Amino acid sequence: ESGGPRGYDAAKKVKGRKRHFAVDTQGLLLGVLVHAASIQDADSAGELLRRIKPLYNWLRAVFADSIYDRLAVLLACFLLGLTLIVVRRVAGPKGFVLLPRRWVVERTIGWLGRWRRLSKDYEQRPEVAEAMVTLAMIRLMLHRLAHPNRKRLPAP
Fold first, then answer.
1. Residue 30's closest CA among 4, 56, 54?
2. HSE (CB half, 13 Å, CA atoms) of 11?
3. Which pLDDT does position 10 carry in this prediction?
4. pLDDT tens figures, 79-88
5. Is the backbone of residue 155 left (phi > 0), alpha (psi -120 to 50) or beta?
6. SS3 letters for 58-119?
7. Which residue, among 55, 48, 23, 43, has the nearest Cα to 33 in the 3D structure?
8. 40 φψ region: left (φ > 0), alpha (ψ -120 to 50), beta (else)
9. Which pairing describes strands 14-23 and 7-9: parallel, antiparallel, or unpaired?
10. Are 143 and 153 in contact (CB under 8 A)?
11. At the top level of CATH, which class does the domain 7-146 belong to?
12. According to the model, what pLDDT value does residue 64 have?
């Protein structure tokens, strides 16, 4: 298939690829998974957890969106010795609502959104797209170490 695997998610109306992020409580990237949009979110969460658990043995709990409250994710968490904590949306306001723990992931996505290379899917293969996300996060973390008192990162 030319350009690597791509797909279409009819529920989210997304064509192309989806990115899944695992971050710690400070918003630093633990892992990323890029796959065709036709693959369900809950199916790919287990793969991401299997990738990051051997790297981070201290990981005990996983906070997730309600879309990940599925048997496949629960089974993956059980097999890896993780506790799945689902952060549910409260009834009421529509649109963007600041939810506990989930805002950390949204903030990380916002940080990564400043990199033009990540604003669109330029990569041919999902592995290269994952590497680009990792490179952007490495730059962000290095800047934080080098300049601990500066709030903003200069444009790339």
1. 56
2. 7
3. 67
4. 999 999 888 7
5. beta
6. CCCEEEEEHHHCCHHHHHHHHHHCCEEEEECCCCCCCCCCCCCCHHHHHHHHHHHCCCHHHH
7. 48
8. beta
9. antiparallel
10. yes
11. alpha beta
12. 86
Single-letter residue type at 115? W
- pLDDT tens-digit map of 70-103: 888 999 999 999 999 888 777 777 777 667 777 7
Q: Where are the domains of the chain?
A: 7-146
Tokens in use for 70? 């599925």
DSSP 133: H
Residue among 81, 46, 75, 41 at smallest CA distance from 61 = 81
Residue ranges in the chain whose pLDDT is less than 70:
1-3, 9-12, 14, 97-98, 151-156
**How many angstroms separate the Cα of 115 from the Cα of each of 119, 123, 150?**
7, 14, 19
Total length of the chain: 156
Residue 47 and residue 151: Cα distance in Å, rounded? 34
